[in-house]
Design a protein that fits this description.
The chain is α/β, with parallel strands linked by helices. 38% of the residues lie in helices and 18% in strands. A hairpin with a 5-residue loop joins strand 4 and strand 5. The structure holds 2'-O-acetyl adenosine-5-diphosphoribose.
Length: 236
């Protein structure tokens, strides 16, 4: 790890990208998905985060999302989110691509944020497909759409396609990245992980910040081992 080299590369960067995952919100108190205490250790994704699960038992799925919305509504961004927002104010070329649905990057002040897995603060109609913001905590279960359809959480579930326009923007930003920070992601979920490969192919200087190794560690130019909330503010 060579922090000076990372700072130098970042200083010269005109189109940096930060690809973030659950680890960046861990210090805020949002549970990650994998690893100790991860959501997928205690819950079965196939019962809660698939379109089939919602069709079979929308009440159960909504109760789980309502619990997560309650949890997220009570927490705040941490120094890692704020560091990225500050970086954007110094370098407006920054794009934050996040797999997180918690909205914490925006709350911290980041503006150019691509939420490729959707947002827990949005709902979408299963019938008319209309999508809108909803910040009710607790939410009225089952929420209904004016069209008569049932509303579902505005997030991407396993087996579903990512929002095409946002994914295209993410690939475009990664394809012209000259510096890429990969923060707090296990790098095992596609197509999110392939954005890092796109950055690598584009010649971006690749930097990982993670408490441990990930599936993407082998394509990094530099790896900083540690908590995002401690490492990022010092680095940026
Ligand atoms: P994971 O839970 O798979 O991985 C979290 C990563 O963060 C791991 O590599 C940890 O080592 C690291 N980590 C934990 N605490 C950290 C900290 N304080 N600072 C830095 N790193 C830390 O989360 P994701 O990779 O984001 O998808 O998961 C990807 C997707 O899988 C999620 O978006 C979600 C899930 O199923 C959908 O819901 C569609």
């Amino acid at each position: 790890m060579n922090l000076e080299r990372i700072r130098e590369k970042l200083k010269g960067s005109v189109s940096p990208v930060a690809l973030t995952g659950a680890g960046i919100s861990a210090e805020s108190g949002v549970p990650t998905f994998r690893g100790p205490g991860g959501l997928w250790k205690n819950f079965r994704a196939e019962d809660l985060a698939t379109p089939e699960a919602f069709e079979a038992d929308p009440l159960r799925v909504w109760e789980w999302y309502d619990w997560r919305r309650g949890l997220i509504s009570r927490i705040k961004p941490n120094p890692a989110h704020y560091a990225l927002a500050e970086l954007e104010s110094k370098n407006p070329g920054l794009t934050v691509i996040t797999q997180n649905v918690d909205g914490l990057h925006t709350l911290a002040g980041s503006r150019n944020v691509l939420e490729i897995h959707g947002s827990i603060w949005r709902v979408a109609c299963t019938e008319c497909k209309n999508s809108s913001e909803n910040r009710e905590v607790p939410i009225k279960i089952l929420p209904g759409c004016p069209c008569g359809g049932v509303l579902r959480p505005g997030v991407v579930w396993f087996g579903e396609a990512l929002p095409e326009d946002i994914l295209n923007e993410a690939f475009e930003a990664s394809g012209k990245a000259d510096f890429m920070l990969v923060v707090g992601t296990s790098g095992v979920v596609q197509p999110a992980a392939s954005l890092a490969y796109r950055g690598k192919e584009a010649g971006a200087f690749m930097v990982e910040i993670n408490t441990g190794p990930s599936a993407l560690s082998n394509i990094m130019d530099e790896t900083v081992s540690g908590k995002a909330g401690e490492v990022l503010p010092g680095l940026l």
